[in-house]
Amino acid sequence: MRALSFAGALALFAAFAGGAVRAAPAIPVTVAVDVGRPGKPVNPVWRFFGADEPNYATMKDGRTTLATLGKLAPDRVYFRTHNLLTSGDGTAALKWGSTNAYTEDAESRPRYDWTIVDRIFDTYRARGVRPYVEVGFMPEALSSKPVPYQHDWRPGSGDLRTGWAYPPKDYAKWDALVFAWVTHCVERYGRQEVASWYFETWNEPNLPQYYWGGTQAEFFKLHDTTVRAVRRALPEARVGGPDIAGAGDQYLTQFMAHAAKAGTPTDFLSFHAKGNPTVVGTGAGSHVRMGLSAQLKAADHEYAQIAANPAFRTKPIIIGEADPEGCAACQGPANAYRNGTMYSSYTVASFVRLQALAERRGLNLEGILTWAFEFEDQAPFAGFRQLTSGGIDLPVINVFKLFAKLRGRELPAVSDHQPPLDAVMADGVRGAADIGSIAAIDGDRVAVLVWHYHDDDVAGPDAAVRVALAGLPRALRAGARVTQYRVDPGHSNSYAAWLGMGSPLAPTSVQRAALLKAAALAESVVPMVVKGAGGVVDVVVPRSGVTLVVVEPRG
């Protein structure tokens, strides 16, 4: 994988060389925030995460990463993972994991062993994270096509769909397994706790070449059986699905029609929406171009199906995987955006639009789940889609720290350089940069988030942003502390620091300490000029940067 485009390397060189390369004039931007007009409560849709590999959660860097996530919003962060019922010894591998929860004796009698899955859930709960329970995959002893069982997938080769992906040969035994598991969870964690979790069946059953070896009718039968078993063990359990891939089909419409006809309880609907990065140019002059438009179109296709169904249009919606592309464990040139601030700025720009599209259709978007975690014991900044590398925060995890600081009620925030929603959905951000904003107020505390995004991962001018605050409360006019938090090429950026060290494959203790320091969320005090009932804060937001300005009373 190419670590950095030529343009990106040039920008970093300029930063570390103290500006030896003449910078283009900054783009003047005004963000107008009406502090006196609070709206609806802030919806923390960002607090959902997930990964293919369940066993990483209990390993050293997995535990550290979960702890960071849990601190963002204790007991409100959820984690979804594949392979919670997959057979094996618990050894982690790319796009693989296992718990060995179900086996059979010589007389085909079920044996349940919750040791590994308990360890996973215990690790979540000890760090303030709750399970978003994906009920799957198929244990070897229950698979209708068990041989071969474990896949041999590797980045770029191997078959993914093997014995774990097939329907059960005995639905009664599957029913009993799910019932026993949920019953055990209630006994271990408590009824009220488990009732706060999400339960859904399988992953992307509309992709038969990857995750489902049966027919649609067989998946619907599996889903109905699963939901009945969960609800029999815990009648108040929150159940839903189908966590399909946003593949431009009508599978979600067919799922809703089936659930209504069968009377299968549905507390939430879930689907996935992914972007599609490409590489533009060749050789040293090539760069990644993100596919924001593709992700928004994929989501809106599913939104439209939900909005058209009166029986389901008020249901909470979880985008169960929302990412710039489709394979966290894959590497390659089109994924070169992941380590740096392209990923962090894309995350903000996409999440805001995914919310806006749902609101426009009058839908209830409850969560946007980032399918990224960590890959244990890999080379530093190896190019996987992850939140941390070797226990060191990447820029993308820092934007979730910014999201967590947006609380209270939404405020009107208008940037004169934020393109219209329809334009971004149709064409992405290929012309002028997307310099947008959202804001919130919590008591007398005002927070304004500003992002500077472009689909093309190349250098560009900074944005000179004037945040104009109208209607400031008296406590802020009398004297306020203004803090700027930054995630950009020069701040909260462990990857840039690693490149500056010469990209060591085995950082020394001193280098690791420096990387941890560089990864921390950067903050500084900035001035605010108060005039009448308003205030002005001037900040610089580099391209691919995200900034949060927090104005709060002194003391």
Number of helices in the DSSP assignment? 14
The first-level CATH class of the largest domain is given as: Alpha Beta
Please report the total strand number as a whole number: 25
Ends apart, CA distance between termini: 49 Å
Tell me, what's the shape? globular
Strand order of the largest sheet: 2-3-6-7-8-9-12-13
The helix fraction, in percent, is 25-40%
Low-confidence stretches: 1-21
Task: Write up this protein.
The protein is an alpha/beta fold. It folds into two domains: 6-39 and 409-553, Glycosyl hydrolase domain, family 39 (Immunoglobulin-like, Sandwich); 48-404, TIM Barrel (Alpha-Beta Barrel), CATH 3.20.20.80. The chain is 30% helix and 25% strand. The protein has an eight-stranded parallel barrel, surrounded by six helices. A six-stranded antiparallel sheet has the order 16-18-19-25-21-22. A hairpin with a 2-residue loop joins strand 18 and strand 19. The protein is globular and about 80 Å long. 51% of the residues are buried. Mean pLDDT is 95; it is low at 1-21.
Structural topology:
Elements: H1 6-16, E1 27-34, E2 48-51, H2 60-72, E3 77-81, E4 102-104, E5 110-112, H3 115-126, E6 129-135, H4 171-189, H5 191-195, E7 198-201, H6 216-233, E8 238-244, H7 251-262, E9 268-274, E10 278-280, E11 287-289, H8 292-307, E12 316-323, H9 341-360, E13 364-370, E14 388-389, E15 392-393, H10 395-404, E16 409-411, E17 413-415, H11 421-427, E18 434-442, E19 445-453, E20 463-470, H12 474-478, E21 480-487, H13 494-500, H14 509-519, E22 522-525, E23 529-531, E24 534-541, E25 546-553
Helix pairs in contact: 4-6, 8-9, 8-11, 9-10, 13-14
Enzyme class: hydrolase
Protein name: Xylan 1,4-beta-xylosidase
Organism: Sphingomonas prati
